[in-house]
Structure formats: structure tokens, C-alpha cells
Amino acid sequence: MMASYKPFYLAFFVVVSAEFVWKHHNNEELPLVLEEVHEKCPNITRVYALTEPSVRNVPLYVIEFSDSPGVHQPYKPEVKYVGNIHGNEVLGRELMLGLAHYLCDQYNYHDRHIRALIHNTRIHLLPSMNPDGWQLSTDAGGQDYLIGRNNNHSVDLNRNFPDLDAITFEFERQGISHNNHLLKDLTRLAAPLEPETRAVMRWIMSVPFVLSAAMHGGDLVANYPYDESRSGAPVSEYSASPDDDTFRELAMAYASAHADMASGSRAGCRISSDDSTAYNFGKQGGVTNGAAWYSLKGGMQDFNYLATNAFEITLELGCQKYTDERDLEKEWIRNKDALLAFIWKAHTGVKGIVSDDSGFIQNAIISVVNITGSVPRPIRHDITTGAYGDYYRLLTPGHYEVTANKPGYFPVSRVVTVPRHQTSAKILNFKLEPTTSWFDDYTTFGLYPHGLRDGQPRIYKRSIYQQITDSILDHKETKH
Ligand SMILES: *[C@@H]1O[C@H](CO)[C@@H](O)[C@H](O)[C@H]1NC(C)=O
Ligand SMILES: *[C@@H]1O[C@H](CO)[C@@H](O)[C@H](O)[C@H]1NC(C)=O
Ligand SMILES: *[C@@H]1O[C@H](CO)[C@@H](O)[C@H](O)[C@H]1NC(C)=O
Ligand SMILES: [Zn+2]
Predict the structure, then answer these.
(1) Residue 276 CB neighbours (<10 A)
(2) What cellular component GO annotations does this protein have (predicted)?
(3) Which CATH number fits domain 350-438: 3.40.50.1370, 1.10.8.60, 3.40.50.1820, 2.60.40.1120?
(4) Ligand 2 pocket, 136 CB below 6 A?
(5) pLDDT tens, 3-42?
(6) Would you say the CB of residue 401 lies under 6 angstroms from ligand 3?
(7) Which of 135, 165, 399, 438 could serve as 228's disulfide partner, Cβ 3.0–4.6 Å?
């Protein structure tokens, strides 16, 4: 009789051993935690590494959650979280490991909300983008404000992305309306790309992310684009993107679901004990425009928005950069609802598929005019359709005219109302008709690439896009 209980004890033992412990996980333990989660939840997870490791050859591991791991499915937005881009800012790294365990456990406990989230979203968690910096910072006792911030080439990874802000600002000045996927327009790199940056760029360019957040430490605030000021002013210049309202709402979604990020009465963060200028961002709802705080070039957040369809914000998760180990679990409890609420934001706005009689249309352009107020206002940032002709257009509640267009087709516009409290984006599909079915030459109808209007100037510069994308795009993610 006893023998028949053995498998039960064995199974019980495996589950217990996979229980998550709140502590600082080193670079060897990190992939083991992800593997544990994968073993508990093999059907809804996949562990993989980005195309390139860090300078010191540490793989950049990702765990993915989806009901169909490894596969993009139309109508299912993709979301990512990136932790530990600054090696000495460590909370995001542990929160990602904790979140991975939590998503898996709740899924297995049949938590209705988590099941709905995973069945409708593809979620990627990169706990550490800078494992070398983490090691240096940890070896130094995790106390210093700067040691371990950079990668092993002493480069700040959050300054190492191509500066596409400069390009979009230049187009604005010239009245050119081309406003998305600007990597094509890059003519020079300010600095060589670090391996960690390259790996993340390839990832960003190859997965159709809709929503993203990067995790830092040193303050408590959700920061949204642009990070770079238009004038070059180093501080206090609000630098609105065309999606300013949407970004504010995304940042507020995190801040207001956090224990006290949005609290006006908490203390501000001090850089040193005699620092009396500590400002509490909670007084402004726990959010800030990036450049209104301080301006930076080459950040990952603006790169996501200007090179791809992804909307990324930057989370400063607390005053302490190297969080005390004994505070990790408490910080998880303070961030848990916010981490989930933010992922749900991928399900706001409108989404759909653009097709013609013969199938999906890739790279169709989705442009939006806000018709909520008395004056229609174009949102000058277009989204493009992906491999299945699918698009995801994050928007705030209101009324919009959405247009699908592609050279060679007649554009189609539809009016839509985005309601409050969405848990699923409004579906708006488009069927386009080729102009060739009517006329041989569509160019006489004023369809220009990138929404250029007739007579508008176009900058002609030798683009290094081909050079960059050749090296970036034709790599596939390598499996762990
Ligand atoms: C994974 O899916 C298979 C087939 O549907 C099922 O038999 C199995 O129980 C699932 N495993 C877990 C851990 O959910
Ligand atoms: C690079 O890594 C090595 C080995 O861990 C370390 O000794 C060295 O200080 C690091 N250099 C920088 C600039 O981080
Ligand atoms: C559209 O306009 C309304 C009213 O001005 C505003 O509340 C809303 O946030 C705008 N939407 C976007 C996405 O800018
Ligand atoms: Zn940082």
C-alpha cells in the first residue's frame, strides 16, 4: 500500500523545491529559476536567450508566457519587461523572477484573470540586460551609486541606442510627416553599439511588441517619452511625443496601481543625506515626461517608439538602487498589481487585421485622427501592420478616425469610439482594394510613402539603414 504513495511524495517534493525564494539571484541562478518556472508550466512558457551574450559572455535570458509559446498570434499583443539595464539597479531583475513564478503558479491555480491575461497576451520578461554590471556592483557590496551601472566596456546601455529623437525632431522642423520606423533614416551612429544593445535591438526589431517597460532604480516614478528635449536643454523641458496622452495614461496605469508611487504625501528620494532638494513625483501622480525631468540621448525608451510599433515607458522603482535583500518581497507586494495592470494596458485602444482579397497585408500604415474634441487632431505617429496584417493601436478613451493605407491600395477610414476600462482592444478590421483594379497608375492619386503630402520637401541622405538592418535583422533568436 505504501508504495502507491511514493509518486505523490515525489511530485510534492518537486513542487516544494521549485518554491521561489526572495533573494538576489546571481548570474548562474537566474537561468535556473527560469527553468524551474518552465518545468512547472511547460505548456505556457519558453526560455530563450537573445542573439548575443553580454561582453563577459553571459547569455541574456528571457522567459516568455503565452498559450502558444514561440509563436506570434494575430490579435494577441506582445508585451515585454526589461530589468537591470543598469547593473546596480537590481529590483527589476528580482521582480521579473518573482513575476515569472507568480504567473505560472496562478495559471496552475486556475486564477481567472491570469489565465485570461496569458491566453490573450504574449509576455516576455528579460530579468537582466546587464549581468556584467550586476556582477561588478554585487562584488563591490551593492552600495555604490555608480559602480556596475555600465556594461563591462564602461558604456551606459541606456545611452547606447541610436538617437532617433534627433531624426524625428529634424523632420518636425522641416515639416516632414514621416514619423515612425526611423531606423531607416539613420545616417550615423554616435557610438559603436554594445553587444547588449545589439541583442536587444535585434529582439525589438524581430518581435512585434506593442507595449514595454524598462526597470530602473534611484527614484520612484513612471517616466514616459520623450526622454530627449527638443532644444537640447538638459533639464525641465517637457518633450511631448505625438502620443503624449496615451503615454501619460500608460505611466499612470503603473503609478496608480503601485503601493505609493502616486502618493502625494510620501517622501521624495534623496541622493545623499544632506540633499534637501528631494522631490516627490507623487505630487504629480507618480509620472513624469522624461525630458521634463532631465534630457538624455540614446535611451532605449524613445528608441522603441521611434524604431518600432512598441510603446515603452521607464519605471524608477524606488530610491534605493541596490535594494536590500530583506526588502525584496515587500517590494514585490508593492509592485505586483502595477506589473499586472500595466500588461493589461496592451488591451486598450483598437486592433485589427488589414487584408485584401488575396490575404493579409503586411506593412500597411495605420494612421489616426483624434476627433473627440471640436477640432480634429491628427496623432502624428503611424503604426504598421505585422506578419499577419495585424496591428495594435494603443489609444485613450475617445473618438477616432482610423485609416488603413498602403501604396497601391485605396485608403479606407473608419470611425471608432474607444471606451473606458477596456480589457480587450476594440476590433477594427480593414479590407483594402488595390488601385490597379481601377487604374493602371495609382501615383496620380497622391499616395506618397510615409504620408508625405504633395510638394513637401524630402531629405535625401545616404542611409545606413541597410547596413544596420542587414546585421540586425537576419539573425533569429537563439533558443536557450
Ligand atoms: C500540458 O498540455 C498537455 C496536453 O494538453 C496536458 O496533458 C498537460 O497536463 C499539460 N501540462 C500542464 C503542466 O499543464
Ligand atoms: C570587466 O569584468 C572583469 C571581470 O569580472 C572585471 O574585473 C572588470 O573590472 C570589469 N570592467 C569593467 C569596466 O566593468
Ligand atoms: C483625444 O482627445 C481627447 C480630448 O481632447 C483627449 O482626452 C484624448 O486623450 C485624446 N486621445 C489621444 C490618444 O491623444
Ligand atoms: Zn537606471
Answers:
(1) 5
(2) extracellular space
(3) 2.60.40.1120
(4) yes
(5) 333 344 444 444 444 689 999 999 999 999 999 999 999 9
(6) no
(7) 165
In this prediction the pTM is 0.89
Domain regions of the chain by residue span: 18-347, 350-438
Q: How far is the CA of 217 from the centre of ligand 4 (A)?
A: 6
Taken in order 89, 287, 183, 411, the sign of the CA dihedral is positive
Ligand 1 pocket (Cβ < 6 Å) reads: 42-43
- The atom of ligand 3 lying closest to the CA of 379 is 14
Classify 45 as helix, strand or coil. strand
Architecture of the domain whose range is 18-347: 3-Layer(aba) Sandwich (3.40)
Whole-number Cα distances in Å, 1 to 4, 5, 6, 9, 36:
6, 8, 10, 14, 31
pLDDT-based confidence at 270, cuts 50/70/90? confident
Ligand nearest to the CA of 148: 2
Q: Would you name the residues annotated as active-site residues?
A: 316
- Measure 46 CA to ligand 1 centroid, in angstroms: 14
Q: Could you report the per-residue pLDDT of 84-118, keeping only the tens digit for each?
A: 999 999 999 999 999 999 999 999 999 999 999 99
